[in-house]
Amino acid sequence: MTATVAIEHVEKRYRAVRALHDVSFALEPGRLSALVGHNGAGKTTLIKLMLGLIRPDGGSIRVLGENPAAGEFAGRRCLGFLPENVAFNAALTGRETLAFYARLKGCDARQGAALLDRVGLGEASRRLVGTYSKGMRQRLGLAQALLGRPRVLLLDEPTTGLDPALRLTFYEILDELRRDGATVLISSHALDELEGRAEQVLIMNRGILVADGALAELRALAGLPIRLSLKLNDPTVRPAWVPGDAAIERDRCEIGVLDHTGKMQLLRQAANDPAVVDIGVAEPTLDELYAHFLRQQERAA
């Protein structure tokens, strides 16, 4: 499959600050990727490079097969972008704002009304943007980014200010775009939201890409324990097959195993033991993986 975004050995400096160091990765069509890292890790710089707003000091960037910083970049109208802090003309209505951006993108302005309804701004579409709350402006920004059904969608903290119901709608829209073959990249600190949704995770730290892969691949690389939580009908009796270092508190027994073979063995034993009345399994979370790879990179530095 041909990558829609290809970053190869990219370097970027801001005077004495090395914002990016030898960063390489690819984004594929029909996939949602998560770009995570602390403030200052290089996430926003990468997005600006993909949009063609700035140029790299080294390496190459290709978006839809072209250099996005080139003046004749034909794929620009196929990009959608939502910045972390959206800013619109306060004297325009929501409807007028989308009509303006539709003209810039060269797409049908009638899309705007449907998108405003989709993001929950249908009734407020004729109000001035200056009267909108932060969450409403964020929704307007999302509608703007979705104009023209972009082939590449770059989103920086997109769910800031969105209520839980609209967050679900937001991810439903992204799923539709992915099924249609769009490439979606989300830069976010909301790691719990991205877990189970992101098919690729890119972890940045101090301008260095410290991990890149599917969640299952990162879990295998990290080697963090899988946690089994067993509820016992009699917490005073430790089953013979439970490891001696397993913690038992009240009616719960917590066991950590390092691989799926050990997990399945313990699950079979627990399932066949009448002393166990409930079983819970927790894989290492994206938060834990993020912390692990950052610590690993810091130790290696």
TrEMBL record:
SMART domains in the cross-refs: AAA
GO molecular function: ATP binding; ATP hydrolysis activity
Keyword Glycosyltransferase: no
PROSITE patterns named in the record: ABC_TRANSPORTER_1 (PS00211), ABC_TRANSPORTER_2 (PS50893)
Cytoplasm is among the record's keywords: no
Domain ABC transporter: 5-231
Family that this chain belongs to: Belongs to the ABC transporter superfamily.
Role, per record: Involved in beta-(1-->2)glucan export. Transmembrane domains (TMD) form a pore in the inner membrane and the ATP-binding domain (NBD) is responsible for energy generation.
Protein name: ABC transporter ATP-binding protein
Lineage: Bacteria, Pseudomonadati, Pseudomonadota, Alphaproteobacteria, Hyphomicrobiales
Gene: nosF
